[in-house]
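Researcher: First entry.
Model:
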Amino acid sequence: MIQTLNNLIAQAQVLVVAGIGLMAIVFVGVVWARTKSAVPTVGAVVLGAVVVWGVSNINFVQQKVDQDIRDAGALAPIEQVDPTGGVEVMGV
């Protein structure tokens, strides 16, 4: 049962990536049809490629975001509130 669900999830992931790729192609076509200009069309191609890459490599992106959050948390100063109303910053 678990193996079957894993296979269905893997197939759904492939289908989602293919759908996003198709939407990127349609997006580029719509941009070209509306503007008839190379600059916006190249921008649409680049944006579509970035989105398809991000969807295809979601694990890589998630690991980088987690690492950035952990790094930012480790560098954040610790504030300790003084009962007299002042704030003392520690760890700077």
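Researcher: Second entry.
Model:
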Amino acid sequence: MSLEAEIAHVLTAPLASLLDGTCQVIADSRSDQWNLPPSDRHALRAWGLPKGPLFRPGLQAESAPALVPNVASERERRLIAPGQRLYLLGAYGSDLVINGEDLTLRVGAVVGSGRLLGIRSRPLTVEDIPQALRAYYAGIYHPAVRFLNSSVAAFVEVAWRWRAAVAVLRRYPGPDNKVDDLEAWKDELDAYYAQQEAVRQQVLAGMVRLDSALADPQLDSIWIETITQDY
């Protein structure tokens, strides 16, 4: 089976067939008290959340929402109002601590709607990068609120399918360096990167079919960067 065919299978197979109990974190009955759509609560109890890549589940135990957004500018205000609160589901990316301040991105579900957002305690600005690099990134602003998915249920499915897709991608490493035929190796390497780019676009298109909000450039979902650049 080709890489493209394996990815197509990951995007269309029954979700239950992609679950892995060794990395599965299932919500307990306390999540039934959360003010979320029934489909979102069901996804957390039936499918759970996968550990990695990049996402680290850590569901709050409390019935009241634990996350408070920092609506520092219009960019945050596009996604959430100051009075809204979120249920904590985990953390995204590496732990980020700057001068003792925890700026790790937390993943939360907005009370009522279930919309999935990434929340930092404050925006990241040029002051948060090394002095030597600041001249190159003047005006940089990473908002304190980022969009992920339109619902918890969509996030659960996208996260599991992306985890399975990464496992497939890692089974197709780049070509070995052919010291005796550098031009042939360069051609193979170019073909490899072209295939990787095409497959990542294939994955992204599949995820958009699961949650059309990922295609909205105004929302700028974290998934876009993750799928096209990271893992």
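Model: Note on the second entry: The chain has one domain: 3-228.
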